[in-house]
Amino acid sequence: MKQIVLSAIFILLFxxxxxxxxxxxxxxxxFDLVREGIAQGKIDTIVYASKTVGASRKALVYTPPGFxxxxxxxxxxxxxxxxxDEKERFNQGAPHIILDNLYADGKLKPMIVVLPNGRAIGNIxxxxxxxxxxxxxxxxxxxxxxxxxxxxPVKKDREFMTIAxxxxxxxxSLNFSLGKLDQFAMMACTGHPDLIQxxxxxxxxxxxxxxxxDGNYMCNTGRETFLLPVEWEKGFSSILRKALPGPTxxxxxxxxxxxNYLTGNFTYGQQxxxxxxxxxxxxxxxxxxxxxSIREGRLSIQPLAVSIEEAKSPAVVMCRxxxxxxxxETQLSFTPATDANFAGATLFQNEKYQFLFGKTLIEGKENxxxxxxxxxxxxxxxSQVLEGNAGxxxxxxxxxxxxxxxxxxYSIDGKVSKILVxxxxxxxxxxxxxxxxxxxxxxxxxxxxxxxxKLGAM
Length: 458
What we know:
This protein has five helices and 25 strands. By secondary structure, it is mostly beta strands. A hairpin with a 5-residue loop joins strand 8 and strand 9. InterPro entries: AB_hydrolase_fold (IPR029058), ConA-like_dom_sf (IPR013320), Esterase-like (IPR000801), GH43_C2 (IPR041542), Glyco_hydro_beta-prop_sf (IPR023296), Glycosyl_Hydrlase_43 (IPR051795). GO terms for molecular function: hydrolase activity, hydrolyzing O-glycosyl compounds. One of its GO terms (biological process) is carbohydrate metabolic process.
């Protein structure tokens, strides 16, 4: 039986910045309840041809009470969150009732409200559906807005066009409008932090955020949850002042953090003394069969006939990449019998975006090799033949990350390290390139169905 013998050590660093704005007061009671005896607007479903995605797409349009085709109206594009479509606002709330009540109270001037599907894709089940949120910019500007302006009596000057959204819709509103200031005069975006007041009167926020490592907001650590104090200024909440780093541990009276928390600078060693893995380890989907065991300080992984490039459950256990700067190393004992055998480490965001670093056979010889998998392109940045006894020996493999770069090295004797690849592009498994928001995973993997094209060397 082929085994991987592993002992992992992680050395990581930390940094965070962020800023948020929250509501100062609650909405009045009954703001979203139907009132009798007031004028009501109308909701229509429109279907427009999207040249951007090559398909017909739907949107909802609210026209105000007393709507007339003989008048021209301002237009408001209202975007949804990451899990929704054009109907989300109605599934989770009552925007038409809220608008009707605001008109009845004389708090709004008549406008047309457009609720689009902010995920611009023909097939919503396609694997690139996350990218569709960015594609929507072209769909909005080149397809939907021209259709609305042709179909409804709207004012086309920038002073009468507004865009706003929740969550990812807020991000879309910000990104689209800042790039089109000649088209949008007003923009608003909202997130969803939880604001909590303690019995002592202090305000705290629990919110999601990311820790990008360069000016392009690249992020390999995924979306995380943070706790920070809230300061109120003129009715607005300031959670973290601009350009200030987030603290590793929040100073709060009575707060009792765990002494073994994996935050800040830390070293973590997994010695495999317990018969089960701790909760820092995860699988890719639910395992269909048992493939790993722990005995005498060794984690053994039985290779499965499943590739990590398939949308299945491969023989892999993984931990999160928790810092932009880190190093991870493990001792690997593995002898491949054919070129379909592979064992080693993975830096994994999903099946189509990852690195594989380990041992396999190439042209009948054992090699230490690095594979870079990017969408439909599989490349071999480097490989090294392990001559003589080196191919049979236990080998130490190490990955070091520093922002947008990974270094891959190995050692036969445990003393002298050899760099196989230096300054590899770490953005491959990033959220911005690969999609998703769970972050890059560092994993230990084995397969008997290794099907990467080994001739596609760069």
